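Entry 14. Ran structure prediction on the chain below.
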Amino acid sequence: MHNEQPALIPGCPDIYCPFDTFKSIMSRYYNCDFNDVCGIIEAPNEKCEPSKFENEYVFEVFHVLVTFIVGLILGMLIQKFLTSTLYSASVKAKEE
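Output, structure tokens:
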């Protein structure tokens, strides 16, 4: 449910996802023993550890940000170079 509306979980064949399929999908994101977690009546003291996927996601976000910043800096340098080159050319053309 999302905002009180049924929502399809990516990877599930239907809105009512089979539990084994749900466990398989969630195991990509969290390394948990669902049988132990679901069998505990009190709140567990241990949290599920994030899987490598979450760490890879953080790396991808970082990579995109760094690429964007490097591209922005290179674009500014190219613009400055082209502007100064065109300005120099126009000054030379006026002198002639």
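Residues 52-95 form the longest helix (44 residues). Will compare against last week's run tomorrow.
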